[in-house]
Amino acid sequence: MGATGSGKTTVSRVGFPNRLISLTLVKFINKISGSDLLTSHGLASCTNEVTLSKDFTLARRTVILIDTPGFDDSTISDTDVLKMIGLYLSTTYEKGYKLAGIIYMHRITDPKVGGVSRKNFRMFRKLCGDDTLKNIVIVTNMWGQVDPERGAERELELQTDEDLFKPVLREGATMLRHYNTVASAEAILLQLVHNSPQALRIQQELVDERKDLADTGAGQEVARELMELKKKHRQEVAELTKEIEEAAKEKDVRAQKEISEERKLYEERIAKAQHDLDNMSKQNEEEKKKLEAKIESIKEERMC
């Protein structure tokens, strides 16, 4: 998991009959597995669904890489991303597969941790919960694009930031570097493949506690952000309405038209935010059946 353009991709190991690891790694997914999954080379995401790679062996374990969309995706709403991730995690958990590790990707090239990165990490914490912190690895990447000394300074800042990584590191999470090599990618995987599998918080909420997605910690976080977005856009609509009234008094038809068009855009954003809120818990049964079939197919391949 991580911000769009951070070089993230999800990697999981299937060890039947009762283990499934889901973790997030970088673009080495194709290099290390021989797959041909699309990756994002900029800030536009190329992933709009959960995709499985070819399997490979590491430390006598069968590994399957799972590419997932990230939050702040350029083409999918956070609500839809959460629904995809929630469906995947809940369905695999229902089939008896527990997670043994999760990786959070962060670009060491970022001079500061902005609002988007902090939002992504908040979502990460909500998905994982506190009981799985020892199975979490925070991975910094893009070291080849930064001066080593400056990168080390940023790394220390990340490790000591009380509002970011310090609390999870204190509770047992690990921080590693990825140098865009197979060796460092394998080192990250080896940190996790022998962990005792644990259910993530969202899996417990959706399956064990039978909560709607909107009632989970992650769902409530997305809803909170959508409500704040609606509030912000309503304020903008109110201000633009005043400007339209002023333009009408001055009989400035052109200004009225331009401002009205801008107001319409904000009204559409408000409607979109409300639509995302209303549809958060609506499950696509067809997608669930497809995912279940995919899991059964992997099972059969492993047993052959």
Describe the 3D structure:
The chain is of the alpha/beta class and 304 residues long. It has 2 domains: 9-211, P-loop containing nucleotide triphosphate hydrolases (Rossmann fold, 3-Layer(aba) Sandwich), CATH 3.40.50; 215-278. The chain has helices at residues 28-33, 78-94, 115-128, 148-159, 166-170, 182-190, 201-208, 217-249, 253-278, 285-303; strands at residues 9-15, 19-20, 23-25, 51-58, 61-67, 102-107, 136-141, 174-177. The strands form 2 sheets. Strands 1, 2, 3, 4 and 5 form a 5-stranded antiparallel sheet that branches. The chain has a 3-stranded parallel sheet with strand order 6-7-8, covered by helices on one side. Helix 2 crosses helix 7 (201-208). Mean pLDDT is 83; it is low at 10-26 and 39-46. This is G domain-containing protein. InterPro entries: P-loop_NTPase. Residues 274-293 are annotated as: Disordered.
Helices and strands, in N-to-C order?
EEEHEEHEHEHHEHHHHH
Please work out how many helical segments DSSP would assign.
Answer: 10
Q: The CATH topology of the largest domain, please?
A: Rossmann fold
Largest beta-sheet characterization? 5 strands, antiparallel
Our Rg estimate from Cα atoms comes to 22 Å
Q: What is the β-strand count? A: 8
Terminal-residue CA separation:
32 Å
Query: How many domain regions?
Result: 2
Contiguous low-pLDDT stretches (5 residues minimum) are 10-26, 39-46
Provide the CATH superfamily of the largest domain.
P-loop containing nucleotide triphosphate hydrolases
Mean pLDDT: 83
Please report which band the strand proportion falls in: under 5%, 5-15%, 15-25%, 25-35%, 35-45% or over 45%: 5-15%
The CATH class label of the largest domain is: Alpha Beta
| Protein structure class | alpha/beta
Shape: globular
Helix content: 40-55%
CATH architecture of the largest domain, please? Answer: 3-Layer(aba) Sandwich
Protein name: G domain-containing protein
Region (Disordered): 274-293
InterPro entries: P-loop_NTPase
